[in-house]
């Protein structure tokens, strides 16, 4: 069974997570510099059996597009052209959930939680997919 990649795309860093082979659980994978997102994803698609990519979309409450939303949609379009399905998933409160998950492990300012945030985004998608929603 092919795996699913989760992405928390940010202005400086991008968090990556991957599903387990049964597509039930999200596993934090890596944190990379956002300037390397596209080539890194392209290589991951070659190395892993990934046919679906879930990208967190931080749509503002106002519903108006901002720079981050525009950048996320642009990277989603580039990845889609690589021949994989791309799903934009709301990332509302995922960073807070990721901070809650790592709380107590290390000082908040010392941890890069972008891969954990990507796992939260991916798990949110997997839960909805596996529950039939």
Describe this structure as you would to a colleague.
- The protein is of the alpha/beta class.
- It has a single domain (about 5-130), classed as YqgF/RNase H-like domain (Nucleotidyltransferase, domain 5, 2-Layer Sandwich).
- About 40% of the residues lie in helices and about 25% in strands.
- It contains 4 helices and 5 strands.
- The chain has helices at about 35-45, 65-80, 95-100, 115-130; strands at about 5-10, 15-20, 25-35, 50-55, 85-90.
- The protein has a 5-stranded mixed sheet with strand order 3-2-1-4-5, sandwiched between helices.
- Strand 1 and strand 2 form a beta hairpin.
- Helix 3 (about 95-100) packs across helix 4 (about 115-130).
- The longest helix has 17 residues, at about 115-130.
- The protein is globular, with a radius of gyration of 14 Å.
- The two termini are about 20 Å apart.
- The mean pLDDT is about 85.
